[in-house]
Every structure is written in structure tokens, then in C-alpha cells.
Design a protein that fits this description.
Length: about 200
């Protein structure tokens, strides 16, 4: 019997793009592309690929992808063909476990990798992420300290770079380090302009 089964287009999510308004004076323009998976759908890579394609049309100087945690299909779809991967972790056993998996994924894909240690110095189990990174020859791009002032600032919906002295410089240095890391990506690996 022929024609017993067929395919029909089905919505799995949406991609929304637009310019960010109310940027501080003197700031570069910023476009935000958001992929949103519909409730009950499991095809996140489809939405991610569409969001990446949409971001490529913006002619941006660089593209920053905020990937989901872990190493499942959605994370792979996000980092594939990136020029660099920036892994954000905390100094906990769970954080180090996930960091190892994500670093292995980036290494398998041949993508230069850097690490940001969030809540550094929180004394949460004596895990030394910097030592592990040094053993693997993965640069620690930045350490963001465990600091009540930082937590209070973002809890108030504010940006630490606008409120706390020295934070703007920290994040500018982080961006420059990521650009340098991306510049080490070999052309055979690089397939996009993502950081």
C-alpha cells in the first residue's frame, strides 16, 4: 500500500530578532536573536540552527551564542562550527563534572576553549577548577568572585558593569581574551563567526 504515511510541516518553535533598545550612549548597536522551543517539543537543534542562520544575516562584528548547559544535542547544535567556546562553571564537584564533559565536547569538535569561573572563592567543596584547567592547558579567561555586591546588583536587575567599580574593565578584558582565543581557530574547524 502506498501513501499510508506522510509528512506535514509542524511548528516546533520560533525565532525572534530585533535591536536592543536603550543602549548606553556611545555603545555599539546590539541585536538579539532568540530561539524559543514550543512546550512539548523536543527538536531544539532545529530552532537553534534557525536562530544561528538568522544571526548570520545581521552582519555583526561577532556573534555570541548562549548555549544550553550540558552536552546533549542542543548544546552540540549551538557550538558546532563556532570559532571558540567559553565554558562558565563554578568550583563545585558538580560544576567540574559538567565542565569536563563540555571541554571534551569542544576538544572533540576541535574548537578552542576558555573557562570562566563564576562565584570563585565560594568555598563549596575545595574543587580547584583552575588547577584542572592548567593540567588540560585550557585558559581560565576570567574569575568572577563570590561577592555579595555582585549578587545584590544583578538581583536588583542591574548590570555589574554599570554599578561596581572595575567590573566593566573585567568584562572588556574577558571579551578581548575570547576574541584572541577565537583567532586561534583553524580555518578547517571554523564554520561560523560564533563565540
Amino acid at each position: 500500500m502506498t501513501g499510508a504515511m506522510g509528512e506535514e510541516p509542524m511548528r516546533v518553535g520560533e525565532v525572534i530578532a530585533g535591536a536592543v533598545e536603550n543602549m548606553p550612549p556611545g555603545s555599539a548597536s546590539l541585536e538579539l536573536v532568540t530561539g524559543r522551543l514550543d512546550v512539548g517539543q523536543v527538536k531544539a537543534p532545529t530552532v537553534i540552527r534557525e536562530a544561528r542562520a538568522r544571526a548570520k544575516t545581521s552582519h555583526a562584528q561577532f556573534t555570541l551564542l548562549d548555549a544550553p548547559p550540558g552536552v546533549a544535542c542542543a548544546a552540540v547544535a549551538s557550538v558546532s562550527h563556532a570559532d571558540a567556546v567559553l565554558l562558565v562553571t563554578e568550583e563545585t564537584a558538580f560544576g567540574l563534572h559538567d565542565l569536563k564533559l563540555a571541554a571534551e565536547l569542544a576538544e572533540t569538535l576541535g574548537i578552542p576553549t576558555g573557562i570562566v569561573i563564576n562565584r570563585a572563592g565560594a568555598q563549596t567543596g575545595g574543587v580547584d577548577v583552575a588547577a584542572w584547567a592548567a593540567e588540560r592547558d585550557i585558559p581560565v579567561i576570567a574569575s568572577i568572585p563570590f561577592d555579595r555586591a555582585i549578587a545584590s546588583t544583578y538581583a536588583d536587575g542591574k548590570l555589574v558593569i554599570d554599578v561596581l567599580p572595575g567590573e566593566k574593565e573585567r568584562f572588556i578584558a574577558m571579551l578581548e581574551s575570547v576574541r584572541e582565543l577565537a583567532a586561534t581557530c583553524t580555518p578547517s574547524v571554523a564554520g561560523g563567526v560564533s563565540l
